[in-house]
Design a protein that fits this description.
Strand content of chain A: 5-15%
Oligomer: heterodimer
Largest sheet of chain B: none
Number of helices of chain B: 19
Largest interface: A-B, 85 and 98 residues
Largest sheet of chain A: 5 strands, parallel
Shape of chain B: globular
Radius of gyration of chain B: 23 Å
Number of strands of chain A: 9
Structural class of chain A: alpha/beta
Strand order of the largest sheet of chain A: 4-3-5-8-9
Structural class of chain B: mainly alpha
């Protein structure tokens, strides 16, 4: 028998495997050199270099470099500690909470950015579960909740009309939504906790500012016709616990980042949504609402504002009367359109699609006060703060776009 | 749990602390390592720990009864028990859906319409790896290449030892079990070098594979309805060649580094494979522990090269087809393996036909480039999810799309091709040496500088905790 794995003193020296000093080039054998036999303990040679000293140097150098990068992130880029990234695992966490929540919110990035959860809670005493996802068709999320027999609460469906009616699939949120139940593995949960803990103290930990994105975004559309990283939506938000999104303050200031953020929307230009598609979406929405209501839940649609620069193209793609108005006429649910809220007119929408951080609070205040009139499921607290108005978020020198 | 995760960093720090704690005996440290390994596996899907346990216990007892058996037929029965249990688990979880789908399609082709219930079985991570590792134990004992392990704990720890558990290198019991016999304690230099290897592996995975190469690959391969031109199709495929290498070799390098920190030696799994000249050379350099496993337990038992030309070619092709299927339950993987089998057969024939031919330096480089190009063609079937998808990319590579779509922006393309050229060039230069031999002659200051850059790049890239490609196998 050429080899044995039984205990014997004879091969103790052989079983060490690791040896100091590199073998001459090419001498280390692998299983490829030993066909048809039991493989011996492999050899790992350690180059005779001062690895501990090298390691100590690397540790210090990397700490210094990382500190420098952290300083750059805070002072030159404008990132902040406490801005935690969103992720499929975080969405799964919110989704699980939504199952038993009194109020859950689904939608695309508009309702995600434009809802101030703290204001919502201050007004109603209810903390909503935020299950919206950027770039995601809220109609698919509505159907997702309609298919969940555990959900009996009030579902607020935020929408950007063209996305709701015109987008064929679920969109960016697909990896998070499909099979979200599997995003609760122990390693995923611990990863989420450790990541959040680190992001409370480190500003540079931001997925929008990782090395590879920095590098490829230097290409500003050099090759025509390709989906250049320059055309993507870059960082426009900050995320806080509870998946509370707010506009990143760097986007609220005029400059390169704000200009790019506006550019990335490409004006929301697109072909008109065909009437037969609208009909189909309304039918599916109606069915989803009916199913939620049949088991004791309810649905209310919300249309947050967009800036006139985008709104003009959105209306070309699908005018309000052809989309929103027809939807509300057909489905057994009520709705709140930003156009109909006097306090939500001419708010600050820095990159044309999402409200500024302060104006998100004003919009939330406006729509929640309307919400309590539409549903008996929510009531205004006796100690609710006084109503907000445009003046609470729009600077005095602000010129409406 | 995956190496490129914050959870692993915390886990590894705790494991190291326990491993070097002075108050534990070696026996207790082995128990600690086994518990840690089970936690490592359970962190992904706790119930699947049962499969590990079944595999461990069945193979332990099969080997024990094999050596106690008086009759050859009894030995064979125990060997077959081990093979059936292990391949049965692998077949059920990995190939059940595939077999069912093929059965349905076959039945439909003869006019029988059958609608089976959905096969919604989750693939236990790393099952292909630990199944092969444990099988080699009973097969080695059956083939009388080795005796069974002396202690159950050592054997159980061999199966579960977390550095190799979920994505290899596929270790043989004779490589690892003896290492558990004596206390392992790495020197400071070993730990330092182990951490350097861990950094290198993470850099390959997090920065190169996931950060720079994967988006280029996805732009070409995950673009339904788009037809890549020659430039895009080749760029996407070359980028995948870089991605799959950095992903898998990155995992192996990290695993070797982690084991080294604990004082254990693991075998090489890659040896600059894109510097290969010819395909037998390629398979001595790519996923060495799998190719040697297939050679020892499949190719040689099938007859190897001992029964004439026809049998040799049949054994070669059969081994590579099954090797392809090992990678995934999809006919595209079988074709990938079949292409490699074809390449190996043609190479074997050419070597016999032109015996004595030795290329010069330029000829060697030319053959290495040719090998790399042909390997890239096989990668199309490995990466594409369907034959239709593979055909679209292959047509693009041949410049056969009349109106090709531009898919990859120049910025990411240039970066990706620079990385791939760097990998190819490095492999060519390093094909006759080892990393350790080069580091032996490299000034410490240069090593420190490179290590610093790699680690800082990993930190700045951050990573998104994406799983290694081979986890799916």
């Amino acid at each position: 028998m050429p080899s044995s794995i039984s205990h014997s003193d004879a091969h103790k020296a052989e079983v060490r495997g690791v040896r100091e000093g590199a073998l001459p080039a090419g001498l280390r054998q692998t299983a490829a050199n030993r066909p048809g036999q039991a493989q011996p303990v492999p050899t790992r040679d350690i180059p005779t270099r001062p690895w501990l000293k090298i390691g100590a140097f690397v540790l210090v150098a990397v700490l210094l470099l990382t500190s420098g990068w952290e300083w750059t992130a805070r002072n030159l880029i404008g990132l902040r500690a406490g801005d935690i990234d969103d992720s499929p695992q975080a969405w799964a966490e919110a989704r699980r909470a939504a199952d038993t929540a009194q109020v859950a919110i689904v939608g695309d990035s508009r309702i995600l950015f434009d809802t101030d959860q703290a204001r919502f809670e201050a007004l109603t005493g209810v903390h909503p579960a935020q299950a919206s996802f950027v770039g995601t068709n809220s109609r698919t999320l509505l159907e997702h909740f309609a298919n969940d027999p555990n959900f009996h609460g009030l579902l607020l469906v935020g929408m950007a009309d063209v996305m709701y009616f015109g987008r064929p699939g679920i969109g960016v949120g697909a990896p998070a939504v499909h099979g979200y139940e599997k995003n609760d593995k122990p390693s995923q949960l611990t990863g989420l906790w450790i990541d959040r803990w680190l992001q409370r103290y480190l500003a540079f930990m931001d997925h929008d500012y990782r090395l590879s994105l920095w590098a490829v975004r230097a290409d500003n559309g050099w090759r025509k016709g390709t989906d250049s990283p320059y055309d993507d939506v870059w960082k426009i938000s900050e995320t806080f616990p509870g998946r509370q999104y707010f506009m990143w303050d760097q986007i609220e200031k005029p400059g390169y980042l704000q200009s790019h953020a506006r550019y990335a929307w490409h004006g929301f230009k697109g072909p008109p949504v065909p009437p037969f598609v609208v009909n189909r979406v309304i039918a599916r929405s109606s069915e989803a609402v009916r199913r939620i209501r049949a088991r004791g839940g309810d649905v209310i649609f919300i249309r947050p504002p967009s800036a006139p620069e985008l709104r003009v193209n959105e209306d070309k793609g699908l005018p309000r009367k052809s989309g929103w108005d027809r939807l509300l006429a057909a489905v057994p649910a009520k709705g709140i359109h930003a156009d109909d809220l006097p306090q939500a007119q001419n708010l600050v929408i820095p990159e044309y699609s999402h409200l500024s951080r302060k104006c998100a609070t004003v919009f939330t205040d406006a729509y929640v006060r309307r919400l309590v009139e539409l549903t008996p499921r929510l009531k205004l607290r006796a100690d609710a703060p006084p109503p907000l108005s445009r003046a609470d978020c729009v600077p005095a020198n602000f010129v409406s776009m | 749990m995956i190496f490129n995760s914050l959870t692993f960093l915390v886990f590894f720090a705790i494991v190291m602390a326990l491993h070097y704690a002075p108050f534990f005996s070696w026996h207790q440290k082995k128990i600690n390592l086994m518990i840690a390994s089970y936690l490592f596996y359970a962190a992904w899907n706790p119930p699947f720990v049962i499969l590990l346990w079944v595999s461990t216990v069945v193979d332990w007892w099969a080997a024990q009864w094999m050596v106690r058996a008086k009759r050859e037929s009894t030995r064979k029965a125990w060997m077959l028990t081990s093979v059936i249990v292990n391949l049965g688990m692998l077949g059920y979880f990995k190939y059940g859906g595939f077999l069912l789908q093929n059965f349905v399609e076959l039945a439909a082709s003869v006019g029988v319409i059958y609608h089976p219930p959905g096969w919604d079985i989750v693939l236990p991570v790393g099952i292909s790896f630990y199944t092969f590792a444990t099988l080699s134990y009973t097969l080695d004992v059956y083939l009388r290449r080795s005796k069974p392990a002396g202690h159950f704990l050592d054997y159980a720890l061999f199966v579960t030892f977390f550095p190799h558990l979920v994505a290899g290198p596929i270790m043989r019991p004779t490589e690892l079990v003896p290492q558990f016999e004596i206390p392992r304690r790495a020197t400071g230099n070993q730990i330092g070098f182990g951490l350097a290897l861990l950094t290198l592996g993470l850099f390959q995975k997090v920065v190169l594979a996931d950060g720079f190469l994967a988006p280029v690959v996805e732009a070409v391969y995950d673009a339904p309805g788009k037809n890549p031109g020659m430039l895009d199709a080749w760029v996407g495929t070359l980028a995948f060649a870089g991605q799959i290498f950095c992903d898998f070799a990155g995992y192996s390098t990290s695993a070797i580094g982690v084991a080294l920190c604990l004082g254990f030696a693991m075998p090489d799994n890659f040896r600059f494979p894109y510097g290969a000249v010819g395909f037998s050379d390629f398979w001595r350099r790519w996923h060495i522990t799998l190719s040697s496993w297939l050679r020892d337990y499949l190719y040689i038992p099938l007859g190897g090269n001992r029964h004439g030309q026809a049998r040799t070619y049949a054994a070669l092709m059969g081994t590579m087809l099954l090797g392809g299927l090992w990678h995934g339950a999809n006919w595209t993987f079988v074709v990938w393996g079949g292409l490699h089998g074809l390449y190996l057969s043609v190479e074997r024939w050419l070597k016999a036909r032109f015996k004595g031919f030795t290329p010069g330096r330029a000829g060697m480089i030319g053959l290495a480039v040719l090998t790399f190009i042909l390997v890239n063609i096989t990668w199309v079937f490995f990466r594409a999810k369907t034959f239709t998808g593979a055909a679209v990319v292959l047509k693009g590579m041949a410049g056969m799309h009349a109106k090709p779509d531009a898919l990859v922006a120049y910025g990411p393309m240039i970066i990706a091709m620079t990385i791939v050229a760097g990998i190819f060039g490095t492999h060519l230069v390093m094909r006759n040496t080892t990393l350790e031999a080069v580091l032996e002659k490299t000034p410490a200051a240069v090593i420190a500088g490179i290590w610093t850059v790699l680690l800082f790049a990993v930190i700045v890239e951050q990573g998104q905790g994406s799983a290694f490609i081979y986890f799916a196998f």
